[in-house]
Design a protein that fits this description.
Bound molecules: N-(aminocarbonyl)-beta-alanine, zinc ion
Largest sheet: 9 strands, mixed
Shape: globular
Strand content: 15-25%
Helix content: 25-40%
Length: 481
């Protein structure tokens, strides 16, 4: 007797696509294969639908005070929005501050996350390199938190790690089997450019994008890679957007160095002309939106396997929060000052549909690559595979069921977070998550949320030593070179 039987769907993994049934008992997959006729409490006929492993968002910032703002969503709301986008697990970051231990920040954040309707995990944010921090990082690995993010910019916002701290953390991470994650933007170049913008009196939204060009990102990316290579420590470069950086990754991969790369859907589909609009402040994020040519380069890197994962970098702030520290002129127009705008975008719900439509639908990536980029590789790199990220006996019964033919229009009115705008407003997408299943329970069905607050559980992670050692240990099906 099964609890749930998914019949007649097309099962998609990172390497295969096949027709088959999936049987679930006690929240786990117990069988995957041909026609199954055994009795089941619930049977769902998925003829015409594709069954993907539950989407994992390995990069969100929820309930994260930043630049004077907090965001409108708690973890319950974010998990609901995610569930509508096929997300069955996400990973957030500790709200570490200078003077507050990363261990205490971890405990605080884990408490907030308990309300989530889907499974969750945590990356530690490191903002200083004292002895206490280094001791805490060891404890965190034992607690199942083996990934540490460092920011190479945002000095004035108090969260930047200097180079010495980065190197120190790399050394500790190497010893304890952890993976440092880097926000790669050169603080020196960005601050210098911001000062130049101020001096010439142009703090427009557009000037923000020009002040942090591709080189600002590539310089930090290259520096992080060189430090990592010197120490012999693997790294993950998050939200990567430019060819100069991707070419460095390609070189690292030729040497089989474990430099992993993430990008986000907004860098593939939104461009810096967005900053020419009066409400361009809504699109202020770091790195900034770039050009269609940059996006084409990033698609190429998704296709050739240089980029291993995608994340949403969901960091949602309302219109009011985005403009909280701005003023208007006599005509009611914004007096543009990009320095006063909190950085961040929303995206946990839109990542899967955008990648389905713009990526698979337009031939940039295959459906199998999409699975790798939204689930399997994230589980593998961040240390929760094969419990997560795959469709095989023994794994958690987490699925995103998609209808590849269904078209819809992205809009604030149809998405499920507490946001009063949508950067993708009006974008027509083809391919839609129509049902989400977490631990064998249907949590989104027929356009309604059927999950419960607090049903998500903390996922303790341990990194794969082979993936920490060599890039080629990641799915061979994904590397095409
Ligand atoms: O602009 C962004 N990306 N905000 C979120 C924080 C970060 O840098 O990841
Ligand atoms: Zn970042
Ligand atoms: Zn981020």
């Amino acid at each position: 007797m099964f609890d749930l039987l998914l019949k007649n769907g097309t099962i998609v993994t990172d390497t295969d696509t096949f027709r088959g049934d999936i049987a679930v008992r006690d929240g786990k997959i117990v069988a995957v294969g041909g026609q199954m006729e055994e009795e089941s409490t619930r049977v769902i006929d998925l003829t015409g639908k594709h069954i993907l492993p539950g989407v994992i968002d390995g990069h969100i910032h929820c309930m994260c005070p930043f630049m004077g703002c907090q965001g409108p969503n708690d973890f319950y709301k974010t998990s609901i929005a995610g569930a509508f986008g096929g997300v069955t697990m996400f990973i957030d970051f500790t709200n570490t501050e200078v003077g507050k231990s990363v261990y205490d920040a971890t405990q605080e954040k884990l408490e907030l996350m308990e309300m989530s309707a889907v499974d969750y995990a945590l990356h530690a944010k490191v903002v200083e390199g004292n002895e206490q921090t280094m001791a805490d990082l060891r404890k965190l690995v034992d607690m199942g938190i083996p990934t540490f993010k460092m920011f190479m910019t945002y000095r004035k916002d108090g969260i930047m790690c200097d180079d010495a701290t980065m190197i120190k953390v790399f050394k500790v991470a190497k010893k304890i089997g952890a993976l440092p994650m880097l926000h790669c933007e050169s603080n020196a170049l960005a601050e210098d450019a911001f000062d130049a913008c101020e001096a010439r009196g142009d703090l427009s939204w557009r000037a923000f994008a020009e002040a942090k060009p591709g080189l600002c990102e590539a310089e930090a990316f290259t520096r992080a890679y060189y430090y990592a290579k010197s120490v012999g420590c693997p790294i993950m470069a998050v939200h990567t957007t430019v060819k100069e950086a991707l070419d460095v990754a390609r070189k690292a991969h030729e040497e089989d160095f474990p430099l992993y790369v993430e990008t986000c859907p907004h860098y593939l589909t939104l461009f810096k002309d967005r900053y020419d609009a009066e409400d361009g402040y809504l699109a202020i994020c770091s790195p900034p939106l770039r050009t269609p040519k940059d996006a084409a380069d990033v698609w190429d890197a998704l296709k050739d396997g240089t980029i291993s994962i995608t994340g949403s970098d969901d960091c949602t702030y309302t219109r009011e929060e985005k403009s909280r520290f701005l003023k208007k002129d006599g005509q009611g127009k914004w007096i543009q000052d990009f320095r006063a705008v909190v950085n961040g975008n929303s995206g946990i719900e839109t990542r899967l549909p955008i990648l389905l439509s713009e990526g698979v639908g337009k031939g940039h990536i295959t459906l199998n690559q999409l699975v790798a980029l939204t689930s399997t590789n994230i589980a593998k790199i961040y240390g929760c595979y094969p419990r997560k990220g795959c469709i095989q006996a023994g794994a958690d019964a987490d699925f995103a069921i998609v209808d590849l033919d269904k078209t819809w229009t992205l809009s604030k009115d149809t998405l499920h977070n507490n946001l009063d705008y949508c950067l993708f407003e009006g974008m027509e997408v083809k391919g839609m998550p129509v049902m989400t299943i977490a631990h064998g329970k249907v949590i989104v069905e027929n356009g309604a949320f059927t999950g419960s607050r607090g049903e998500g559980k903390f996922v303790s992670r341990r990194l794969d030593p082979e993936i920490l050692k060599r890039y080629s240990a990641l799915a061979p099906g994904v590397r095409s070179r």
